[in-house]
Amino acid sequence: MIKANLTSVNGFLLVGFSNDRKFEILHALLFLVTYLLALTGNLLIITIIILDHRLHSPMYYFLKHLSLLDVCFISVTIPQSIANSLMDNGYISLGQCILQVFFFIALASSEITILTVMSYDRYAAICQPLNYEIIMHPSACRRAVIAVWFAGGLSGLMHTAVNFSIPLCGDRVIHQFFCDVPQMLKLSCSYDFINEIAVAAFTTSTAFICLISIVLSYIRIFSTVLRIPSTEGRTKVFSTCLPHLFVVTFFLLAAGFEFLRPPSDSLSAMDLMFSIFYTVIPPTLNPVIYSLRNEAMNAALRKVLSKEEFAQRKMDLKAIFKL
Prior knowledge:
Elements: E1 11-14, H1 21-51, H2 58-86, E2 91-93, H3 94-127, H4 132-135, H5 138-163, E3 173-174, H6 181-185, H7 194-225, H8 231-260, H9 269-279, H10 281-292, H11 295-305, H12 307-322
Parallel strand pairs: 1-3
Antiparallel strand pairs: 1-2
Helix pairs in contact: 1-2, 1-10, 1-11, 2-3, 2-10, 3-5, 3-7, 3-8, 5-7, 8-9, 8-10
Organism: Trichechus manatus latirostris
Domain G-protein coupled receptors family 1 profile: 41-290
Family: Belongs to the G-protein coupled receptor 1 family.
């Protein structure tokens, strides 16, 4: 691999998974397959929700935006890593690194926020069913999604502005397969991280508030569900709540472990595992988790993939082009 001679004033060197060319190719192929699976699954969910009018409810509206976030989130880091491995070149320009940090932080923050909104939606649906349509009015859902994207963008902007205002010294080698903020702080000329610490504290506090909100929502949800006399009713509720709870727990634990622990001087197998856990696995598994036990999603998928539906869509397209 081309080493530090590529790390000019305007760039960085991302340390890959291995210096062995065979392992680099294997890593690129595995990441490519995973990336295509994530894109296919999330785009399929978005398409199903758009096409099936039975899924035009707040829960699936938020799920559609979660899938859109997943598509964007995995596209921030994986294509660059694949390209670097195939070209045997870990170089990333300053501009690319700035964009990667901004979008990575912004989309990760947006994911945490929308998962919180989704937990509140389940709380309102199960614990306050009589007021659900008022609480989750379409205009309220739209405002919630706007707030999700705005909060993510603001978080990404603050982290990017502060992180790249710190002067860097020495070899610009980042011990990760993407521009990871904790690893980049090791390149600073001094230990004056007060601004970055303040921003990180704000972000961590916000994530902690989201986590507490999710926990409280599910405490109320499970206490309500356990009072449902019907086994079928409890099963139906758990089928929509448990996948969401699993996704929230997995994402927050992996991300929290990565960002709260001190950065290491070298890239270990543990570092790689946890970075993959919160950058690659959630966007890939979310479509499977949310559709596996969801009867409405499975029925909509069968409908969209049916021959009759393809024929109907083909007729609709022909009618549009004739106009």
